[in-house]
Amino acid sequence: MAKDKRDKGVYYITTPIYYPSANLHVGHTYCTVMADAMARFKRMTGYDVMFLAGVDEHGQKIQKIAQEKGITPQQHVDEIVLSIKELWKTMEISYDDFIRTTEERHKKRVQAIFKKMYEKGDIYKGEYEGLYCTPCESFWTETQVADGKCPDCGGPLDLAKEPAYFFRLSKYQDRIIELLKNNRGFLKPDSRRNEMLRFVEQGLEDLCISRSSFDWGIPVPIDGSQVIYVWLDALSNYITALGYPDNTSKYEKYWPADVHLVGKEIVRFHSVIWPAMLMSIDEPLPLQVLGHGWLLLEGGKMSKSKGNVVDPVKLIERYGVDALKYFLLREYSFGQDGLYTNEVMLTRINSDLANDLGNLVSRTVSMIEMYNGGEIPPAGIEEGPDADLKKTAVAAAGKVEAHMDRFAFNCALDEIWAVIRRTNKYIDETAPWLLEKDEAKRGRLLAALHNLAESLRIISILICPFMHNTADKIRDQLGVGGEAAAWEDSKVFEKIGSAGPVRVKKGKVIFPRINISKELSRLEEISSGGAAAGEETGKEYPEQKPEIEYDDFAKLDLRVGEIEKAEKHRGADKLLIFQVKMGNETRQVISGVADNFKPEDCVGKKVVVVANLKPRMLRGQESKGMLLFADDGEGFAFVTADASHGEIVS
Ligand code: ME8
To answer: Which of 24, 28, 303 to mutate to test the pocket of ligand 1 (most atoms within 8 A of CB)?
Structure first.
């Protein structure tokens, strides 16, 4: 018998084992990404984690699809399972085991579980006559069905009439009611618990647990003419993967599961049928079942059977794994449904990843390179906003832990982004580019650069469970890529450089800005089958303008200036007003780039100015000259000037 292991430092988390009926969509990815983030978080915070994923390969639905394709069910699942495993590999899902229900280890153990239930007297033979939903693999009685449609998916129901074995589910009704009533943590969110309680209180009927009208399943051990009902087969995976009942070392260690993470539509199977099965074989119940909400598209739930799905592979190809993971974890609240649109996703990636995080990394690393030759300075005297920055940064880990306890991934990320935003604000408050101009302020400049690097080091640890590739990239640029990111190190400030000098090294932009309107039309084209797979992602240069003569170009007077101030034009949404310092003169230049840049991100940039452009009035403000921007295939980028001057060695 397994033990209560809450305080023993092991953590067992599972996702549903998905049907390999078709390729998985973003909805499945959402659930698996949450489980992965939790598994990584628990590992980082010192738990011995067992994270189980897998596929649910039997049942009428799979048999039917294979028949339609003219192949065997095994051929069909082998093909789809390959693509599912490939997807998880691309997404670096850190599962510890992946169970296929067609594996021998699973089949023999499910038969053993069936036998135990039978020997307990909980299984009897009868005849099933009722309704069956093949997409949901669910039995329904006339009383549960209002309009002839499946109460879960709304699809058509088939009449099933066949000899079958039944599980005495009704026998466990009172214990299930007690479980749902008295163990308030068992099923979350509370709305699901109340819904299930109402369902069970209406009375549980015995459950049909075998089928004889098709054969794609595990044979009933006591009757070769029947296969075991796919849900009994599938639910058992959570313990067969641990070796139950014949090889119990992992089972002893990890069972009961800390959490079964499942979509809300299958909460009924996990919080009623599964506990009753475990009661029948006298094994402990999982500690918690968590029902997450659905990703909806306009028009309803994204689902394989409806075919209205978003393909995660396409999104990863274009924006990368970490951007997709971040978006899914940050945008939606656990337990609630959320609408998926490309625009919401792209806006989230631009604002949080390209602007907030990406800019922080590139500004911090650039300034350390420019102002201190690339070496992170040691800690300096605390002044002004330093204390607030430090307090915000070191307090974040504890807040993240509290949110993760509730599976509130969005709130955990919000806390981390509060540190990112605080650090960006710190750059504006300390304005290192101004400190650099005054030798007397050198000490302050170095202290500020240290604090920026330190804050970024803390951020690189905090984001690890959610986007570990980005964490690695940041740590490489910061020069601490060699050390493992340890969670506890995010709770101390002033650690960077304490064991010797650390040098930053500027790398690629971690999240390129996306031109949202262009990208939305690309995604439209892709979903209507317009784009070739494997095309280069995100980049598309506009058509080249007609050739010009050298003399045309020579008319331009190009000068380098530094943006000292940037603000929105009060009278025009699209315009930014820049104050650009060029030698002794400060010029006002106006550009139509308010959709592309945040004013605060522009300050400090060394830009190229067309100085001799005829001045113009733009909505009541004069613009003298023009800033140069160029299309880098992903939208507008500032044409910036390198401050160094070539040295000619003779
Ligand atoms: O139910 N939004 O498999 P399944 C969010 N084999 N999550 C979604 C989603 C959406 N639109 N669509 C699917 C089965 N999911 C059984 C499970 S477990 C012992 C057996 C996720 O392929 C969500 O987690 O239909 C949901 O519960 C699961 O995929 C259903 O996957």
So the answer is: 28
Nearest CA to ligand 1 atom 16: 18
The answer to whether the CB of 558 falls within 8 A of the CB of 609 is yes
In this structure, of 137-141, 203-207, 248-252, the range with the lowest mean pLDDT score is 137-141
How many C-beta neighbours within 10 Å does residue 630 have?
A: 10
Rounded (5°) CA angle 156-162-168: 95
One-letter amino acid of 610: V
pLDDT at 633 over 80: no
Residue whose entry in the numeric block shows the structure tokens 């909400």: 293
Type of residue found at 150: C
Residue to probe by mutation, ligand 1, list 13, 14, 19, 31, most atoms within 8 Å of CB = 31
Distance CA 503, CA 545 (A): 43
Q: Single out the residue of 504, 403, 490 nearest to residue 455, CA to CA.
A: 490
Cα distances (Å, whole numbers) of residue 430 to 185, 414, 446, 478: 47, 24, 11, 20
Measured distance between the N- and C-terminal CA atoms of the chain, rounded to whole angstroms? 83
pTM: 0.82
Q: Which two tokens stand for residue 351?
A: 């604002």
CA–centroid distance, residue 134 to ligand 1 (Å) = 15
Distance of CA 547 to the CA centre of its chain: 46
Q: What does the alpha-carbon distance between residue 586 and residue 269 come to, in Å, rounded to a whole number?
A: 69
C-alpha 43/C-alpha 545 separation (Å) is 54
Q: For residue 151, say if its preceding peptide bond is cis, omega within 30 degrees of 0.
A: no
Q: Are 203 and 179 contacting, i.e. CB atoms less than 8 angstroms apart?
A: no
Under the banding of pLDDT at 50, 70 and 90, the label for residue 595 is confident
Ligand 1 interacting residues, C-beta cut-off 6 A: 16-19, 27-28, 30-31, 56, 234-235, 237, 262-263, 265-266, 294-295, 301-303
Percent with pLDDT over 90 in the chain: 78
Are 59 and 210 a contacting pair, CB within 8 Å? no
- List phi, psi (to 5°) of 641: -110, 135
Distance 231 CA to ligand 1 centre (A): 13
Tens-digit pLDDT profile for residues 521-566: 888 887 766 544 344 444 556 667 767 888 888 899 999 999 999 9
All structural domains of the chain, each given as residue ranges with its CATH number in brackets, are 10-315 (3.40.50.620), 341-491 (1.10.730.10), 556-649 (2.40.50.140)
Instruction: Tell me the per-residue pLDDT of 363-390, one tens digit each, with 9 for 90 and over.
Output: 999 999 999 999 999 999 999 999 999 9
Return the axis-axis angle of helices 468-478 and 321-331, rounded to nearest 10°.
120
- 456: tokens are 């970024």
Q: In this structure, is the dihedral angle defined by the CA atoms of residues 560, 561, 567 and 570, taken in order, positive or negative?
A: negative
Handedness of CA 98, 102, 107, 113 (dihedral sign): positive
DSSP letter at 441 equals: G
Helix (H, G, I), strand (E, B) or coil at 491: helix
